[in-house]
Amino acid sequence: MIIYLHNPRCSKSRDWLKLIWDTKRNFTLRWYLKNPMDYGELVELQEKLWIKAIDFTRIKEVEFEQSNLTKNSSDTEILKAMARFPKLMERPIVFDENRAFIWRPPEDILKIFKK
Questions:
Q1: Is 115 a residue whose pLDDT tops 60?
Q2: Domain 1-32+91-115, CATH
Q3: Closest CA to 38 of 94, 85, 101, 92
Q4: Which residues touch 9 (CB under 8 Å, ≥6 apart)?
Q5: How many CA atoms lie within 13 A of 103 on its CB side?
Q6: CA-CA-CA-CA torsion for 71, 72, 73, 76, nearest 10 degrees?
Q7: 3-state DSSP call for residue 27?
Q8: Pairing of strands 28-31, 3-6
Q9: Burial environment of residue 80 by CB neighbours within 10 A (0 to 12, 13 to 18, 19 or more)
Q10: 10 belongs to the catalytic site
Q11: For the whole model, what pTM was predicted?
């Protein structure tokens, strides 16, 4: 199952959502601000992304500083803060059982659908 982490207030997220619809593939839309990922889900997501937690964190958000995080914070510290403040998660992200992608540039959306 393909899951798309969506923020409807984000123009990039809306643009990528349209691209997904255009593929005519089945996917689940998860509004991650209303239905946030818990710490365990974020650990799994990070493993699928194959990157450090800081690399999919929005460090310019106020909550980043309020959580006393820095670019040198541990993955655990960052993921726990992300579970509390889901807007810290970079977007848009799509994932399935095995892998995940941050969609930059937009054309990379097609990677997840090539199986």
A1: no
A2: 3.40.30
A3: 85
A4: none
A5: 26
A6: 100
A7: coil
A8: parallel
A9: middle
A10: yes
A11: 0.88
3-class state of residue 64 by DSSP: helix
| Cβ–Cβ under 8 Å, residues 38 and 63 | no
Residue extent(s) of CATH 3.40.30 domains in the chain: 1-32+91-115
Catalytic residue among 10, 29, 33, 54: 10
CB 3 within 8 A of CB 94: yes
- Reported as a single tens digit per residue, the pLDDT across 10-65 is 888 888 888 878 777 788 999 999 999 999 999 999 999 999 999 999 999 999 99
Q: What residues contact 60, with CB distance under 8 A and at least 6 apart?
A: none
pLDDT at residue 24, as a whole number: 77
- The confidence score (pLDDT) of residue 108 equals 65
Query: pLDDT for 94-109, tens place per residue?
Result: 898 998 988 766 666 6
Closest by CA to 20, choosing from 103, 82, 115, is 103
